[in-house]
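=== RUN LOG ===
request id: a7f3
mode: sequence -> structure
chains: 1
length: 205
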Amino acid sequence: MLEPAGFFVQYDPATRIRSLIIPENYFAHEIFSPYEAYLMVKEKIMEEQAKRPQKIGSFSTLFDLDYRSRAANIKLATEMIDGYKLNPGEEFSFNKVVGPRLPERGFQKAIVFVNKEKVEDYGGGVCQVSSTIYNAVLKAGLRIIERQPHSIPVDYVPKGKDATVSYGAIDFCFQNNTKDIISIRTFINKNILTVELFQEPAKQL
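=== RESULT ===
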């Protein structure tokens, strides 16, 4: 179907409102009937929607702001992951993206689980980030490559839905097994950590 010259849909990300921009001379020339114009506009809107990223999975967890060192580690790991994109077939590695949990990189000491015991170590709390991502990935139906549960049950995700990580030893990995690009959005609002996964068409070469 041909598009009338000058027709386009304008999207405002701030308000999430789409506006139809109609050329000034459209009604003067009456080239198209109202129904034909409606079909053209509908097709244009659907094309624009198909180009925009679609949310395919999300999950949120709560954490204690008063446990400042742990909260700081969660915030740091969240910032490192936010905006990460996976091309079709590419794998996400938590340890690769976040890197070593060292004090010179801003990580602080907080509780971690070692052989069913609680001890303090740098980066304590980042497992909540990996576990939140894991649950979002499950909702999105992406392929899990590597995942291990904690040696002690955690209370911030449903039982059996956690994913522990330890740099150089235990990783959480998943694969983008779609034909599209997957982007990871991670953000914090007060004491709520949220992970959202978006799917957008890969550019055709």
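=== NOTES ===
The radius of gyration is 23 Å.
The first strand starts at residue 8 and ends at 12.
=== END ===
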